[in-house]
Design a protein that fits this description.
Blueprint (H helix, E strand, L loop, with lengths): L3 E3 L5 E7 L4 E7 L9 E9 L7 E6 L9 E5 L6 H16 L6 E8 L9 E2 L2 H9 L8 H14 L4 E6 L9 H4 L5 H7 L8 H15 L8 E6 L3 E7 L2 E5 L22 H6 L9 H4 L4 H10 L2 H6 L4 H9 L3 H24 L6 E5 H6 L1 H9 L23 E3 L9 E5 L3 H11 L5 E3 H4 L1
Parallel strand pairs: 2-7, 7-9, 10-13, 13-15
Antiparallel strand pairs: 1-16, 2-3, 3-4, 4-5, 5-6, 8-9, 10-11, 11-12, 14-15
Helix pairs in contact: 1-3, 6-15, 11-12
Length: 440
């Protein structure tokens, strides 16, 4: 007889998505036996954690209409991710009268999971394994670990579960995931393409499959997750086949502060005195990996080109004649098109849809129009009038193609990583099983 018994799926599910200077939280409950669609109760966000003043938002959606919404309230007491999470829990009880002990599952987005292929309940062993991977995702893993540590302390009776952005890409073939370096060293140190934004891609694949009324396994997609961190994914027969990010999120498309793909030797020229390379071993030791990664992760991207991380502002200034902003816009468009063209070849031209997602992909009419105009040579009809008013349309997936093409549609998908974690958690029996001893 097994010492584990299935438990009813009762209690609340909390999804936490920690960024380098932010924390997004969503709270869900299961209605009946519907594990496919957890009900969203409220959302919260904390921004500017590392660059005060910290802004706190708290939006109850399905609790009571009388509860006031809090938007961008300054909270000096929040100084790091741990105190941000604690402030949220305090607000949960004081503002909507929800006992934190009703939370039975906490889903944590962890950007880099190494070779983890499925979500795992966090133990001492998995915590330390994630900690070792922080060097490969310096902008995110450290923040997630801080929230995880706090959560285990203040919610000891809840499962803390790590959901990995890298897991979606476990299907990438070895010849695509491998780098042309000594494979003995590569395997020993785990040096290969992992890919990221996997929770977003998993949500989008499922949502687009429902929209097109096809099983996910029948779909070939090119998905553009375009935000302050940006990547592209080629989905072949419902599985990740290639993606633009690599060993770390730094490779591929440029972002708000990331360089994206560069000549690997550029950083040495960039930091060398007078821009000249010396082969003197003493000089060669002066650049540290942490310094190089800081430059490429935090001091590059379109902020280095324009002085701002706001792509909407960049677009407006480009349209007003700013040379620097026009270059940033065109550079980003060019890099996106590089991957779109390449992935069409990898999918043998058989593409059901090109999907825009992420903050920029979902909101930038101009970027969608500019990219769509270049796709006609690949058999797309371009974007139609629906592109202009997509922001005002309801639904998770919106078709902005010109006309009504059967294939090679251009879609927008409003991705939701927090919901994807809650949905996967709700559907997985292993997170709801309880030891018989707990029932006695």
């Amino acid at each position: 007889m097994s010492d584990i018994t299935p438990a009813s799926r009762t209690g609340l599910i909390l999804s936490a998505n920690a960024g380098s200077s932010s924390l997004k939280i969503s709270l869900y409950e299961l209605v009946g036996d519907n594990a496919e669609s957890p009900k969203l109760l409220l959302t919260s966000s904390i921004s500017n954690i590392t660059a005060p003043p910290v802004k706190f938002s708290f939006i109850p959606l399905a609790i009571t209409s009388e509860t006031p919404h809090i938007k961008n309230e300054e909270v000096p007491a929040i100084t790091e991710h741990a105190s941000a999470f604690a402030h949220f829990l305090d607000s949960l009880e004081s503002k909507v009268n929800i006992d934190k002990n009703r939370i039975v599952q906490v889903c944590h987005r962890v950007v880099h999971g190494g070779d983890f292929t499925d979500p795992v309940v966090i133990s001492d062993e998995t915590y330390h394994h994630i900690e070792k991977l922080s060097d490969l995702a310096p902008l995110h893993n450290g923040a997630a670990l801080a929230v995880i540590k706090t959560c285990i302390s203040v919610l000891p009776n809840a499962n803390s579960i790590a959901f990995f952005d890298t897991a979606f890409h476990r299907s990438i073939p070895p010849h695509i995931a491998s780098y042309a370096i000594d494979q003995t060293i590569a395997k020993k140190r785990g040096l290969k393409k992992y890919g990221f934004h996997g929770l977003s891609y998993a949500f989008i694949l499922r949502a687009v499959a429902q929209f097109l009324n096809k099983p996910p396994s029948a779909l070939n997609l090119i998905i553009l997750h375009l935000g302050s961190g940006a990547s592209v994914c080629a989905v072949k027969e419902g599985c990740s086949y290639d993606t633009s990010m690599g060993l770390t999120p730094l490779n591929g498309l440029p972002g708000a502060t990331r360089s994206g793909a560069i000549d690997p030797s550029l950083i040495f020229h960039y930091t060398n005195k007078a821009g000249r390379i010396s082969h003197d071993p003493k000089v060669a030791t002066q650049l540290h990996v942490t310094q190089a990664e800081h430059i490429l992760n935090s001091k590059s991207g379109w902020k280095s080109l324009t002085g701002t991380t706001d792509f909407g502002l960049i677009t407006r200034r480009a349209n007003e004649g700013s040379v620097a902003d026009r270059m940033a816009f065109d550079l980003f468009k060019d890099r996106v098109l590089n991957y779109v063209g390449s992935y069409h070849l990898k999918l043998d031209g058989k593409v059901d849809a090109l999907v825009f997602s992420g903050g920029i992909g979902e909101r930038s009419v101009e970027l969608r129009d500019a990219i769509g105009a270049r796709l006609e040579c690949l058999g797309y009809s371009g974007v139609g009038s629906a592109n202009e008013d997509a922001d005002h349309k309801e639904g998770v997936v919106i078709d902005v193609s010109r006309g009504h093409p059967e294939t090679k549609r251009i879609l927008i998908c409003r991705t939701d990583e927090q919901f994807e974690m809650a949905r996967q958690c709700a559907q997985s029996d292993k997170f709801w099983e309880r030891p018989l001893a707990d029932l006695l």
